Amino acid sequence: MxxxxxxxxxxxxxxxxxKRDLFAQLASEHRPETLFIGCSDARVPPELITQSExxxxxxxxxxGNLVPAYAxxxxxxxxxxxxxxxxxxxxxxxxxxxxxxxxxxALAEEHDLSAAPVIADWLxxxxxxxxxxxxxxxxxxxxxxxxxxxxxxxxxxxQLQNLGTHPSVVSALAQRRLTLHGWVFDIASGSVExxxxxxxxxxxxx
Length: 206
Prior knowledge:
By secondary structure, the chain is an alpha/beta fold. It contains 9 helices and 6 strands. Helix 3 (46-50) links the parallel strand 1 and strand 2 (57-62). Helix 5 (102-108) packs across helix 8 (144-163). The protein is globular, with a radius of gyration of 18 Å.
C-alpha cells in the first residue's frame, strides 16, 4: 500500500496541477467517445496503451475480456454496456484481447479448474471462442503458444458477437451511430493488431 499512497502523493503534487483545468471540466462533464472492454490483467492498461486522457475512455475490464451474451436480469457488465451506449452515447466499442492471457491459456491448455469453480463457470462465456478456434486451425498441429494466440483472437471475435446481443448495442448499430472494433495487444512488443472480419491489420507504430 505504501507504493499506492506514494503514487497518490506524486499525482497530487506533480501531475494534478498541470491538469487542473481538465479535471475541473471533468468534475461536471462525462462524455467519453469510446467504450473499451479489456482484460483485468494488470499488464494491459487501456489508458496507457491508447495514450488517452482522463474522461476519454469508458472502461470495462473482466477476466479474459469476456462479454456475456445478453440475458434479462441484473448484470454488472450488461449495465455498464447499456450505460455507455444508451446514456453516454459512445461512438465506438473496442474489445481488446492480449498475448499471454491467463484465461485463454487455461482454456487452450485445458487446465484443471476444479479448485476454482467460479472461474471455471465464468470461462464458459468463451465457449464460442473455443469452437471458433477449433475451426480456424488444427489444435494438434499447433504449438502451445500458437494455440493460445489463436484462441485469443477467436475470443475477441466471439465477444464482439456476444456484444451484439445486447439491446442497446443492437439499437445503436441499427441507427449507424456505433462501430465495433476488435483488437489484440501484444505485451512484449507493445503493438496492437486490429481484427476486421477475420483479417489482421497492425496499427502503425508512428
